[in-house]
Amino acid sequence: MPSAGPAPGLTIPFVVGSYASEPADPAQRDAYAELLRGSDWVSGLELPFPARLATDPQRVAHTLHDDWTSNVITAIPGTMTRIAADPNFGLASPDTVGRSAAINFTRSVCGAVHALADAKGRAVVVAVELHSAPTRRADPGALRASLEEVLAWDWSGAQLVVEHCDRWSDNHTAEKG
């Protein structure tokens, strides 16, 4: 497939959250991945966790261009699914069981970073986007303790970043709260 060429005004690195626009039809996914790999302005993908990254990291690794240096894993899909099932779930949870569940979930994200590195033969994830929770009850001390714990793990060079850490407000509906 020919390169889509650089988009005007875009600079490298440019990470595409392609999972939000990926075709539902599995037969079209390979062509979509090829289109992205052929676009010289793309330097990485935002990869949702868990999704296929948890079940088939080899397949996900296959979609990554060998030259991409800016792949990012987002834990938001798994975090939001778990919050829906357990309102105590979260790295910032004051509830010991909820915080422990979030730590274990984060450990599985770390495992996915290693699985991709193993599949590609090198580190390919530059950042992992973690998310605070739970809604309305997030505790700064619990978040700090969780981050101190997970920062001690080997992330194969990936940086940890906290995304979507918005504060609860009675004036508007918070995305995460």
Show the helix and strand layout.
Blueprint (H helix, E strand, L loop, with lengths): L14 E2 L9 H12 L6 E5 L2 H5 L1 H7 L7 E4 L1 H10 L10 H25 L4 E7 L8 H12 L7 E5 L14
Parallel strand pairs: 1-2, 2-3, 3-4, 4-5
Tell me how many strands there are.
5
Number of helices: 6
Distance between the termini: 43 Å
Taking pLDDT < 50 over at least 5 consecutive residues as the criterion, the unreliable ranges are 1-6
User: Which structural class is indicated by helix and strand composition?
Assistant: alpha/beta
Largest sheet: 5 strands, parallel
Please state the overall shape, judged from the principal axes of the Cα atoms: globular
What's the alpha carbon Rg, rounded to whole Å?
17 Å
Q: Strand portion, in percent? A: 5-15%
Element string (H = helix, E = strand): EHEHHEHHEHE
Query: In order across it, which strands form the biggest sheet?
Result: 1-2-3-4-5
Which range best describes the helical content: under 10%, 10-25%, 25-40%, 40-55%, 55-70% or over 70%? Answer: 40-55%
Quote the average pLDDT.
Answer: 87
